[in-house]
Amino acid sequence: MCGITGWASFHLDARTQAPVIEAMTDTLTPRGPDTGGVWLGERAAIGHRRLAVIDPAGGVQPMTDRPQRPDLVLTYSGEVYNHHELRSRLRGLGHEFRTRSDTEVVLRAYAEWGEDVARHLEGMFAFAVWDERAQRLVLVRDRLGVKPLFWSAVDGGLAFGSEPKALFAHPEIRPRVDADGLREAYSLLFNTGPTVWSGVREVEPGGLLVLDRDGIRERRYWQLEAGAHTDDRETTVERIRQLVGAAARSQLEADVPLCSLLSGGIDSTVLTALLADELRQREGPGARLRSYAVDYSDQAEQFTGDVLRTGHDTPYAAEAGAFIGTDHSTVVLDPRALLDPEHRTAVVVARDSPIGVGDMDTSLYLLFGEIRRHSTVALSGEAADEVFGGYPWFHSPQALAARTFPWLLVTGDEAAMPLNPELDLRIGEFRDDTYRSALAAVPHPDDESPAEHRQREMQHLSLTRWLRQLLHRKDRLSMAQGLEVRVPYCDHRLVEYAFTTPWALKSFDGREKSLLRAAGAGLAPDSVLYRPKNHYPATHHPDYNRGLQAMARDALATEQVRALADETRIKPCLDSPPDRLEWGHRLRLERVVDLALWLDHHQPELAL
């Protein structure tokens, strides 16, 4: 896993701009702590920071097709899990290889298939190819958007980077926020394309962007389709078992220590069991997979249920680890450590955004830091809820009947920091318009019943929007610690198959994630298989709430924060007793604190 950046311009000789590309590349050092490099040509500058995972000696980047006067230059982040098969195929087509890295496979694949290269790749990736022959820059992002890729126009071309901070090191791009950006950030709709930053956009998941002398063009090479599903229940369960197993096996390859994130829920437990079994088959019956969970020092005594959590994870994670036979560890955090300004600032800097989830972000950042002491790669159960229908809104008559994004019924304005009404952002209208556009993008078969029609909408919204912010969160906080996190449930073949599966099969036993539960039978203890959905843990310690309220008061003392936040709606959150602070009110305070840290770090121009 790595950080990529660079630019192409037809108005400027990039060979004179070495300090600029070096500065852009340096901003991504946490993503690639092992080594870095740049390449300069007349029309393009390419930078790379590397976290060495496969072929540490051979996968150096930027990578060129030949040492002298190259035709192709690649900067690549991610993992292509079918690189062995592609290597054999490309050799059969006459390509020769100097390394055993998947990076070179991507380079040779582009040489063979050009802009169609992504259709041949299975994995998570974001990369840029400068094609010297065609004088063309090509940016490509994986199908689900696991790996980030941002871009912005510059004179005569565009600049790109794994994170916006790389773009801001370019002299033509400054951190600027306008009303559109605030709407994007605080509406909680998770659009793909526009960002909080004015002029900074994302390459869409499953999309590519091409810059040449004729300008910029974007297109999609992949999107969800509503194909026919003809398999019966038994065949469907078996196919799910095969697809999840294949995804897990393909993602176990690494030349560095690897582990699993084991929360004690069905998603991570089934995945960990498959990984552990495959590891034993490869390395012998004594091989043990490392697994990690997170907890807080007060959780067993202080836990209280809320809208997202029904129980304490740690006992289930320990039981699952013992059942599977992993080398299991629980990283126990002091809730008060989550208030450390250094940690909070590091999280906001990593995300380049004022929108986060407070202590849950900070704890994930600290968890990843502890894991990185022993492992370079971790596998996570992210996306199973979106793929298999695990969220409450799939099963709630209220959510199914609502004419808005379903997560807003849980989060809504209670969780969003209330913005100053004088800004007149009209977020309600923005949400309504965006919701209509989002539904218009959902594919449907002709013979779909009304109930199936609605469930397909819910799954499409979850996969193309809600999942987006979860993947952003995991990528930013893991890469800030130099840890690569892989997400097998985002395998596009699994996602495609599950999306075409009727809701009656997805919920055949009357519970959430019926298909995954059936496919995972025997891989997890029953206590885990039949456990209700539980979200990532949050601390419940009153001392944390008390400290958060103090930090929010300090944040509101700054002029820029007061200009953006609605103090009258935040004040009740400040005055609540710390031991009775509601979840939604606490999240408001988290957002106020993060806003202050974000403004202080980026010093953005506010064009409101």
UniProtKB/TrEMBL annotation:
Pathways involved:
Amino-acid biosynthesis; L-asparagine biosynthesis; L-asparagine from L-aspartate (L-Gln route): step 1/1
Keyword ATP-binding in record: yes
The top EC class is ligase
Q: Which InterPro entries match?
A: Asn_synth_AEB, Asn_synthase, ASN_synthetase/amidase, AsnB_N, GATase_2_dom, Ntn_hydrolases_N, Rossmann-like_a/b/a_fold
Return the Gene3D superfamilies for the record. Answer: Glutamine Phosphoribosylpyrophosphate, subunit 1, domain 1, HUPs
Annotated ranges, domain Glutamine amidotransferase type-2: 2-214
Task: Give the keywords, sorted.
Answer: Amino-acid biosynthesis, Asparagine biosynthesis, ATP-binding, Glutamine amidotransferase, Nucleotide-binding
- The lineage's top-level taxon is Bacteria
* Catalytic activity, as annotated: L-aspartate + L-glutamine + ATP + H2O = L-asparagine + L-glutamate + AMP + diphosphate + H(+)
Matching SUPFAM superfamilies: Adenine nucleotide alpha hydrolases-like, N-terminal nucleophile aminohydrolases (Ntn hydrolases)
Assigned EC number: 6.3.5.4
Q: Which family does the record assign?
A: Belongs to the asparagine synthetase family.
Query: What is the protein's given name?
Result: asparagine synthase (glutamine-hydrolyzing)
